[in-house]
Design brief:
The chain is built from 5 helices and 4 strands; from the N terminus they run αββαβααβα. By secondary structure, it is an alpha+beta fold.
Amino acid sequence: MKLPKSARLHHRSLQERLFSDGSKLIEYPIKMMWRPLTQKELEENFRSRVPDLIGPVQVLVSVPKKKRRKAVDRVLMRRRIREAFRLGRSPLLEAVAALPDVRTVSIGLVYMKEENASFADISRKLERLMARLCEKLNENRDAIPKTECDVY
């Protein structure tokens, strides 16, 4: 199964803002840049209207050529990270849905290791990162019932 198009961060203006203004979490070998966006902030990024295909969580996966020289290795690591994100994103989706003023959360995942990591390792590290992100998001809300993210 694929990650749906609505879950992919492909708008250049949102990507630039994510890497310039976003917050950062690191769980080696993955660095997560994240930025919550309200409806008003989303509207400021587009000229006419906000596209319909912007989901509650959008992700961008990057494997730098400087770290993984061969294209087959970069593609392999991108696929592993995307699949681990797809399988473990449901608690994060619930946490974002519970936030009243946040429309979407943009996430950038950057692979930083010079060797290929196993899927199990990536999955475990990404799960920790998403749990920490849930904690950060939950700090910003008041009087909202706890979600599945709080269990981690």
